[in-house]
Amino acid sequence: MTTHRIRSAFYFLIFLMAVWLPAAQAELALNLSEGVTEFSRDVYQLHMIVLWICVAIGVVVFGAMIYSIAKHRKSKGNKPAQFSHSTKAEVIWTIIPIIILIVMAFPATRVLIKMEDPKDMDMTIKITGYQWKWRYDYLDEGFGFLSTLDRKSNLARQPDSGIDPETVPNYLLDVDNPLVVPVNTKIRFLLTADDVIHSWWVPALGWKRDAIPGFINQAWTEILKPGVYRGQCAELCGKDHGFMPVVVKAVSKEEYRQWVAQMKGEQVQQAKMDQKTWSKADLMAKGQEIFETQCASCHQKNGQGMPPAFPSLVDSATVKGSLEGLIHTVKFGRPGTAMSAFGNILTDSDLAAVVTYVRNAFGQRDDTVQPQDVAAVTQS
Fold it and tell me: Within this chain, do residues 142 and 241 fall inside the same structural domain, yes or no?
């Protein structure tokens, strides 16, 4: 009995240290974070209000129980009262919880209404989920780009990669192209998906939204503090669900304007790249990079795949067969299989590069595909 009491006292002391010592509280992260948006801080305040109401209820209820147990225990000669029920008590313990719920409902309703009211927005960004990547379209600026798990993390996660994940900064939580937004700007997000249900979630923003094929969800945010904020897809969306991070980079308005100008310049440059004639060496180098980023998650870096869902590409009929057929498969996908369409994700020059790489690396062919060849292949 003495040992049990000593152990209980030790656990209780540890609990007090975790709650009251600032260093311990910071280390154990016992509370929610406030986030970096006005809405996330409203949610945090709502959480604290409800928490302290629950604490007060707990103190009253358990305090009354402990007092009653100690004051009216049998060892002091007390005998239990004989009664079946008390109408007055039942009315009281029904009315008081109703009042408490109404009190909590007012601030909760205010926050929910605010969350669903994206009026007076300064800009709009469309977010589209794919297996397993995100596309961001800046509707006001007229450009967009793909955001995929960064190459270092993607290589490190491959079977038998020989890379220690501990050596990769922000392993599985970094991307090649983050979503860049200005601070102190009201931003409306339109969320959808192209294949299955995804969920776009950045904890620091204070909300998450499902991205559903054929449906558009709406959300908004206004980031108050510059920084890099990370999240993930929060809906089980298939084999690589765990490798679909979200990175939001909030910058000053001046930095954002400079970034937009840079992106528009790159868009013009990309249009030129889709018109030029590429050398085979350049296509192979670019194609390998795209394959390892976009295709290796299913077909593996060596092209061996993971049959039967993800077949091997090495010496396959698809790779060694008709060149036009291979372009069609990569560009428009293959209905009824796990092969997605990349025509609305990658540019013509990207598609030309990856088809050239696959054709030569896994089909033992000596072919070169140009962007113009990709553009000539249409959906039949």
Answer: yes
- Residue 360 CA to residue 354 CA, distance in Å, equals 10
Question: What range defines the domain where residue 61 resides?
Answer: 31-70+87-117
Q: How far apart are CA 292 and CA 109, in angstroms?
A: 47
Q: Would you give the DSSP letter of residue 208?
A: E
In the chain, DSSP finds a helix count (H) and a strand count (E) of 12, 10
Residue 379 has a pLDDT of: 78
Q: Which residues contact 302 (CB under 8 A, 6 or more apart)?
A: 314
**Residue 317 burial class via C-beta count within 10 angstroms: exposed 0-12, middle 13-18, buried 19 and up:** exposed
Full-model pTM: 0.77
The one-letter code for the residue type at 24 is A
The predicted pLDDT at position 28 comes to: 54
Is residue 4 in a domain? no
Which class for 182: exposed (0-12), middle (13-18), buried (19 or more C-beta within 10 A)?
A: buried
- For 244-273, give one letter per residue: b (16+ CB within 10 A) or e: bbbbbbbbeeeebeeebeebeeeeeebeeb
Count of structural domains within the chain: 3
Same domain, 241 and 343: no
Tokens 């007390």 belong to which residue?
78
- Strands across the sheet containing 143-147: 143-147, 133-138, 123-130, 187-193, 217-221
11 in a domain, yes or no?
no
What are the Cα distances from residue 331, in Å, to 176, 216, 271, 352, 378? 22, 24, 18, 10, 9
322 is written with which tokens?
């008709």
Which residue ranges in the chain fall short of pLDDT 70?
Answer: 1-29, 380
